[in-house]
Amino acid sequence: MPCCCPHSQSAGRFFSRFARHYRRRFRKKGFEPSQRQLLEGIERVGFRDATLLEIGSGVGALHQALLQRGAASAVGVDLAPAMIEEAEALAREDGLAGRTRYRVGDFVEEAETFEPADLVILDKVICCYPDARRIVESSAARARRTYAYSIPRNRWFTRLGMVCVALALRLVRSDFRPYVHDPEEIDAWLSAAGFIRRYENHTIAWLARVYVRG
Questions:
Q1: Beta bridge partner(s), residue 54
Q2: Which of 26, 58, 147, 205 is the most exposed place for a label (fewest CB within 10 A)?
């Protein structure tokens, strides 16, 4: 089902422009530091034989790496059709097509149509939604055991950076906007959903956290 709101449609168009670049960059340089931190946290709590659901899966590199390291299967969903095309190509190249499934759409609008997974991942995704609580609570409800995410750190320089990006997007008449959400609010929502934080790390700009059900 295609996404219906202007913000989601604009986000899909925006990220589709960079899909091929993201895939080529990953093949050349590998994971970004914040993604390596997220993988470290997931490895610490365990993921062997787990089913995965990655929301905002991009070109699929993160969950495909977990499949190569022992996870069972993965579902990826993304607003950007070109991202899904690149993820499917990457999975075929690495022999993972039989263990991956992909959907184009807005998870927030379609959350109840997704089967629960052992591990739910949102890498640089919560910051793409204006309603952080809605995406966190709807995605946490699909996580049986583990929940992992990364977001921009709530610091003055990241907030300033988001303001600059928003202004640039306004100039090109895009409805998409990035956001800096309060990580302590996210922590409270996940705690209320029965999760306990087991890992935290950060770079200058990004915060990575991993939770398990209590």
A1: 76, 121
A2: 205
